[in-house]
Amino acid sequence: MTALPESTQTKLGLVIDLDICVGCHACAVICKEWNTSGYHAPLTDTDPYGADPTGVWFNRIHAYEIDREEGNSQTVYFPKSCLHCEDAPCVTVCPTGASYKRTEDGIVLVDEDMCIGCKLCSWACPYGAREYDITEGVMKKCTLCIDKIYNENLPEESRQPACVSTCPANARHFGDLGDPNSDVSKMVADRGGYDLMPEQGTKPVNKYLPPRTRQMQPGEIAKQDILDDASPEGGFLGWLDNVLSD
Amino acid sequence: MHPAYSVIFFTTASGAGYGLLALMGIFNAMGLLPTDRWFGLVGFILSLGLITLGLLSSTFHLGHPERAWRAFSQWRTSWLSREGVIAVLTYIPAGLFALGWVFPTLLGEQTTGIWMVMGVLAAIGAAVTVYCTSMIYASLKAIPAWTHDLVPPVYLVLSIATGGLILDAMLHAHGHPIGGLSLFNLLALIGALVLKLKYWKAIDAAPAETTIETATGLGSLGKVRVLDNPHTSENYLQQEMGFKVARKHAEKLRGIAVAALFIAPFVLIAAALLVPALAITATVLAVIAASVGVITERWLFFAEAKHVVMSYYEG
After folding, report:
1. How far apart are CA B232 and CA A91, in angstroms?
2. Which residues of B touch A123 (CB under 8 A)?
3. Is the confidence metric ipTM above 0.85 for this complex?
4. Is A97's Cβ below 8 Å from some Cβ in B?
5. pTM
6. How is chain A split into domains, by residue range?
7. In this complex, is the C-beta atom of A20 within 8 Å of any C-beta atom belonging to chain B?
8. Contact by Cβ (8 Å): B181, B33
9. Torsion of CA B39, B41, B44, B49, to 10 degrees
10. What CATH number does the domain located at A12-245 have?
11. What is the band of A246 on the pLDDT scale with cuts at 50, 70, 90?
12. Hey, is B244 helix, strand or coil?
C-alpha cells in the first residue's frame, strides 16, 4: 500500500561525510555492479560505448565549489542516492501500490511487477533518487542493498550496502538512524549532520556531515619556508647557504 | 519538466470533453438545450469521444500500459489513482444520460426526470475528475510552480471554457443558438484569462525556496556552484526534469497562448453574436483557435515548470 507507515521499527540509512569524500566514484561503480545483478537487475545502459551513453544509476557523485567571501574556495564531492525519507512523497503518489516504505526498517522500495511506469514518483522526488529504466518500462531505485544487508550467505562484515563496503576513504556509514545510541546517530550528533532540502518536508533518513572548518589555509602553509633551516649547524654548508642567500 | 505530448493531449482533450459533458448536463437540467436525438448524439460523440481519447492517450506514455488497471487501487493517497477511479465512475451517469437522450427505439429523447438527474451527476463527476487531474500536478511539492493555489481553478475554468466553445458551435450549427451560453463563454474566457495572468505573475515573482545552497546544505559555508556533473552526458533526471526551451521562450509562447486561447475566441464569439450570418464559421474557428491556445498553455504549464532536483545540476 502507498500509505506511509506511521513509524518504522528501525530507520536504516546512510551517513555521508562530505569532509572525507574524495569523489572517486567507487561507490557509484560498485552500486551499479551489485545492483545490476541484484533486486532491480539489470540496470540497463543504452549506447554504453557510443557517443551519447545513458543508463540507470542509483548513486551519483556531484562536485561543487564553494566560493568564500574570504579565504580560498573549497571543492566538495557530493554523493547522492535515495534518502529513504520518512515522509516519502514518491510513495504516496504511486497509483498502483508498487511503491512502498517498509514498516520494519523504513527502506523505500519499488515492486517492479506492479509498476506501470508512469514516472510520477520520479516527479515527486525532490532529490532525483528514482531512475526510470527505459528498456524495461519500470521505475527502479536504491534498495539500500536489501539483498546484501540481510544476506546470511555473506560474512557479517559484508552485510552493508555495497557503496559503504567499498568506500576507500571511509566516507560512507550505514546504520539505524532511529536509534540515538547507534554509531551513525552519534556521528550525526557530534558533527552536526543535516538534511538535504529540509524545506521540502520529506524528513530524509540519510544525513550529511558538513566539511570541517579548515585549521589552516593553503596560503599560510606555503608561507612557512621549510628551507629556512637548510644548514642550522653552520660550517661549510652554513657559509655556502649564507653566500647563496644574499 | 519535459512536456510529454500524450499528457498534454490527455489533459486538454479530456478537459474539453468533461467541460462539454458538464455543460450538457447542466443546461439540459435548466431546460435550455434542444432535446432531439441528433443534437444529443453529436454532443455525446464529441464529449465522450474527447474524454475517452484523452484517457487512452494518457496510457500511451506508460512503460506498461497493460497494467494500467492497477492504477485504480491507491485512491487513498494518490491523486492519479483518484482521477482514474472518478473518471471511470463518471462513465456510468454519463452513459445513462446518453442512453436516454440518444438511443433510437428503446427510449429515445428522454432528457427529463431520472435522465436529467443522470446529466447532473455526470456534470458533477466531470468536475471532480478535472479537479483530480489538476491535483496530480498541484500536489507535487518538488515542482513549486505547480503547487500554486490557482492551478486547480485554472484547470476547471479552462475545461468549462473549451467545452463551452464546442457547445456554442454545436448550437449554432444546429440552428438553435443560445445567447446566454455565448455570454457565459465570454465570461468564462475572461475569467480564465484573469486567473492565468495572475498565475503567471505569481510564479514569476515567487522566490525559489529551494536553491543549490539548501539542496547541498553547503550554503552556510559560502556561495555554491557546480564544478562537475555526475555524468559526462545527460542522465534521466536531466532529460525528464531539465527542459529549458520553454523557460527561454516563455514570453513569446505566453503571447501565443493568450492570443489563441482567449483573444481570438472572444472576438469570434462576439462576432457570432453581432453577425448571425457568420455565426457557424466564427464559432467553429473559435474552437480551433482555442484548441491551439489550450495546447500551448498546457505545453507551457509543463515545459516552464522547474523541478527542484535541477538545483543539483544548474548553478
Report:
1. 30
2. 1, 140, 142-143, 240-241, 307
3. yes
4. yes
5. 0.92
6. 12-245
7. no
8. no
9. -120
10. 3.30.70.20
11. low
12. coil
